[in-house]
Amino acid sequence: MILLVRHGRTIFNEEGRHQGGLDSPLTALGRSQAVRVGHRLAQLIEDPLSWAMVASPLGRTVHTAELIGAAMGFGGNFELDPRLAELRMGDWEGLTGAEIDRGWPGQRGEAKTYDFLFRAPGGETYDALAARLGDWLDQALADPRPTLAISHGMSIRVLRGLYLNLEPAAAIALDTPQDVVFRLDQGQVTRIEA
Fold it and tell me: I need a labelling partner for 21 at 20 to 30 A (CA). Which of 46, 58, 150, 185 fits?
């Protein structure tokens, strides 16, 4: 079993900026989300020490993981794995949609989904992201221990899509709230509210 959690809300989220490999601190709401998720996980996980716990090495996920660990009552004993990092968005990292439109007119299209992010100059393609996340997912599924992973919006969309064998467009369209837990177990994905 794998439990997936997205990092809490950040300043860049508030500003509508695409973070990718950049970092932005958690807001007060983001810290509160992480604590609520931690309390919910404490109800779901009887013995945290029997779990593999891993986070993306980006600051927003590390901070979220620390807050979750404290709320669960076991501290912040997480491994870091760069394969769980967010989609690299190249030249568009740190920019808002309006800034992308000014610098690259027409590149976002209608922007009704996030598929445009895979067209970022110097960024990562869907196939590249799916390959590194798929490598992590295969390893996590082979581990006899259940796994708790703290990651990012697009990465969690793609992980769920890979687990469910969804087409890329369907995976990209999935939601990724910052205050829920997604359980991947027995071929199904279940959403657990915090």
Answer: 185
Which among 18, 63, 66, 86 is annotated as catalytic?
Answer: 86
Nearest to 108 by CA among 129, 84, 92, 124: 92
**Does 66 qualify as catalytic in the annotation?**
no
Evaluate if residue 109 carries a pLDDT over 90.
no
* β-strand pairing of 180-185 with 2-6: antiparallel
Tell me if the pTM is above 0.70: yes
Domains of the chain and CATH, by start: 2-193 (3.40.50.1240)
Would you state the pLDDT for residue 149? Answer: 98
Dihedral pair phi/psi, residue 186, rounded to 5°:
50, 45
- Give the pLDDT mean for 119-142: 97
**Burial status of residue 1 (CB atoms within 10 A of its CB: 0-12, 13-18, 19 or more):** middle
